[in-house]
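Hello again, I could really use a second opinion on something today. My current little project is about how a certain protein chain folds up. You're getting the sequence in one-letter code plus the fold written as tokens. Here's the protein in full, and shout if anything looks odd to you:
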Amino acid sequence: MSANKLELGDIITELFPVHNPQNREQEGYRPAIVVGLPENVGVPCYDMVIVVPITTHHNQVWANIAPHLYPRLKAGVGNLPHDSIVLTDQVRSRHTSRMVRYIGQLLKAEFRPISRALAHMGS
């Protein structure tokens, strides 16, 4: 799978590395949303993609306290099987070889809260 075929808002399954020591960073195979494509800015030296991981929504208190930081996606959106939370505070740059499969794509309106959260973190 090549980054040239991906678009912003695509949902993919990614292999996130195991961290030592473990904390709250996402690990293993999990869905992620494409939030950045380096080739949109220039010619990257490596085939990379910028993603944010997704976790299943189980009414986590931390997500309820900061809904703009942790946008929610309903089951079925972008072919996600469960209600989910987008972890915009865990932005990762990943080599495209870590992509496992394509899941689906968010509509522009569904991607907008994610894009806004990322933009506000940088301002």
Summary: The mean pLDDT is 89.
